[in-house]
Write a structure and sequence with these properties.
The protein is α/β, with parallel strands linked by helices. Helices cover 42% and strands 8% of the residues.
Length: 298
Amino acid sequence: VVIASKITGGQNVNAKNIIADCEGSLRRLGTDYLDIYNLHWPARYSPQSNWGQSLEYKQEVELYSGGRADFGEIAEAMGALVKQGKIRGWGMCNDNAYGLAASCYAARALGVPPPVNMQNDYSLINRRIDENGLAEASSPVHENVGFMAYNVLAGGVLTGKYLERAAAVDDPDQASARRSLEAPRGRMDERGWGYTLYRYRSGPAAEATRAYSALAKTYGMSLTELACRWTKERSSVTTALLGHTSLAQLDETLRYYSKKEPLPPSLLWEIDRVHMRNRLPIFSSTRVGKDWDGEGEI
């Protein structure tokens, strides 16, 4: 069993709150220590933590985003918690290669333990870490920080269930949408999360999902199995964080992760071919209004 908790990101992150929030988690969980304590998103301004809506890094936003904890303050507070035995390791979530490398350098300069894990979104329809330097920075060759993939099933989209019947907020059939809202199959059928997580069901994401579903069928497996086994075999992935709503789902994914035989090379190449035609599906959108001032719906 690995016990983990988080502090939020942004301006809430400072030495005082890092320690206070950790101690609050320890009380609520009834434990003496956490194995992992993460920042949920960066303390600093970063387009990475804006879920992809930002089309560029804006220096002026950085220059006027004062009052935020720097890498040294964060590393020093985390180091103090390690020394006190309240956490065994720390890390970050929804960050990028710059954030990881700067955190490691700051910790070493202060003589405290560097981060041990990075948790980011990663799946068949979001391979961004493989191409933006994060997989390189976190590898054992460089910073040796374990990578924890979350949303391996893209919020349930990579089970294929939303291909069979659209998510409630996308469903043009009002009666069908109402049934989904009353008996949700997952977060995508909830109004709040359904709108928030549209990026996993955008036009390009749905196109990629259909292509991967067809590949899975051709190779005699479910889309869920393909998504889980593909992620498991990626050299950049140390572990995966999976969410379930039933024990049956847990048993299913454990069965896939327990399979020792690798996916066929021919299938891996077909997956790469889909990827090369549609490289960043969850950060692409067909819902881009002409007057939306640089924003698209994801």
